[in-house]
Write a structure and sequence with these properties.
The protein has helices at residues 79-90, 94-114; strands at residues 4-8, 14-26, 29-38, 44-52, 70-77. It is an alpha+beta fold. It has a five-stranded antiparallel β-sheet with strand order 1-2-3-4-5. It is flat, with a radius of gyration of 17 Å. The mean pLDDT is 84.
Length: 115
C-alpha cells in the first residue's frame, strides 16, 4: 500500500490521501495524471499536470525535459469516474476498454438502484 500524502486543494483544504495510480506520457505536451483516494472514504482526487514542451531553436526537435509552461489542477471525482479513469489509463485495446467501461457503468447503476 502506498504512503499517506497530503493534498492541498485550491481552497486551501488539506486532504490525507493514498496514491492509486499514476500515468505519464506525451509528445507535444508532457503530462502526468495521478489518481488518489482519500483515507477512510470513497472520495477520489485526480491531479493533472501538463508541461508544454518548448521547441528547439532550429525547430527540428523539442528540448529534453520539462522546460515549458506548467499547468496543474486537482479535482474531486466520484468512485465511478475513478474506475472509468483506471480503465482508460490501463487498457489499450478499444473493444476491451469499451466492455470494461460498460461493465463499470452497469455495476454502478445496480448499486444506485439498490440504495
Amino acid at each position: 500500500m502506498s504512503a499517506v500524502e497530503i493534498l492541498v486543494l485550491d481552497a486551501g483544504q488539506k486532504i490525507a490521501v493514498r496514491e492509486v495510480e499514476q500515468i505519464d506520457g506525451g509528445d507535444a505536451h508532457e503530462f502526468r495524471q495521478t489518481l488518489y483516494r482519500a483515507c477512510g472514504s470513497r472520495q477520489y482526487y485526480l491531479e493533472k499536470v501538463v508541461w508544454d514542451v518548448l521547441p528547439a531553436l532550429n525547430g527540428s526537435s523539442s528540448l529534453p525535459g520539462r522546460n515549458g509552461k506548467l499547468r496543474a489542477g486537482i479535482r474531486a471525482i466520484g468512485e465511478e469516474q475513478a474506475m472509468l479513469w483506471c480503465v482508460d489509463a490501463v487498457l489499450n485495446d478499444r473493444v476491451l476498454r469499451k466492455r470494461f467501461r460498460k461493465a463499470v457503468c452497469a455495476l454502478n447503476a445496480r448499486r444506485r438502484a439498490v440504495a
